[in-house]
Amino acid sequence: MDISYGSDKNGLLCGYRFENGAPGQPIDLAEATAWLRNGEAKAAGDFVWLHFNLSDAAAEACIRKQLDVVPEFFEALHEGSRSTRIEDAHDTLIAVVNDVAYEFAFDPAEIASLWLNVGPHMAISARSHPLRSIDRMRAAVKSGKPLPSSVAFLNTLLQEQGDVLVRIVRDATVQVDVIEDKFLVGRLQNRRADLGKLRRVLVRLQRLLAPEPGALFRLLRLPPPWISEHDLEELRQATEEFSLTIRDMSELKERIKLLQEEIAAQVSEQTNRSVFTLTMVTVLALPINIVAGLLGMNVGGIPLAEYPHGFMAIVSMVAVFTALAAWYLYRRKD
């Protein structure tokens, strides 16, 4: 079988068979269905992994027709909730895993879902857009990484997703450090928009990637009987490490929020200072504007019109009133 990036006529991107703890062997859909329907006894850890492209219209119909998949898997495909979760449905694990696009550039639109149906001898994954974690998993299997069981496949995928998430948090932290340094030296420029975009991405990631604690607790408390204790412990550790990364993301989000508040306070202070300066100029110019307006009226009876030192008298009067206004503003500037 040609394991290429594109899918075949059934929407299958890749397929592998894992037996006796050995590296996965490429397998097509016909071979996988024949292996699954073979009545011979299979070892506890033997399974096939089939990865489908849901953007191919034939993929979902093919899964319904040729594979033994529980109805809850298709319900998860079409329901509105996309939050990360792992549930037990008739002794089959149904997982919704949110991941980022392969070329993730901190854009909320680059977050998409991966759906999983994991049983004792079959693991099915399906996605609509190329995602980083599952592609890393695919590359590792193609290079010879062994998977002792289908639950080990799920645990490895969660670990890959955790590694991707750690890199996202690390890159976001570097961006926040740069923005904070520019803020401290007063050269923020247009970084406020970058902070807002970064915070929106982190909020969306946290909302979608944080596993639902209720579903996970029920699974760990009452797992399907075919899951070994070792695999269950690995799943518990993977979810705990994932939760720690989500906590780091939450702390980074709060740091961005505080930095946004500091920037808003600085902008507000600068605005108030500018308004106060404009007010001072307006008040200081008020006496001369009033006097000039009164003396500029073309009517009779203008005072000091015949007085030889009238100009200096008016200038002195304006200067006195301007000085009084300046003194008053100085006292009330705080």
From TrEMBL:
Membrane topology field: Multi-pass membrane protein
Record InterPro entries: CorA_cytoplasmic_dom (IPR045861), CorA_TM1_TM2 (IPR045863), MgTranspt_CorA/ZnTranspt_ZntB (IPR002523)
TM segment ranges: 275-297, 309-330
Localization annotation: Cell membrane
Keywords: Cell inner membrane, Cell membrane, Coiled coil, Ion transport, Membrane, Transmembrane, Transmembrane helix, Transport, Zinc
Ranges in a coiled coil: 235-269
Protein family: Belongs to the CorA metal ion transporter (MIT) (TC 1.A.35) family.
PANTHER family xrefs: CORA FAMILY METAL ION TRANSPORTER (EUROFUNG), ZINC TRANSPORT PROTEIN ZNTB
Protein name: Zinc transporter
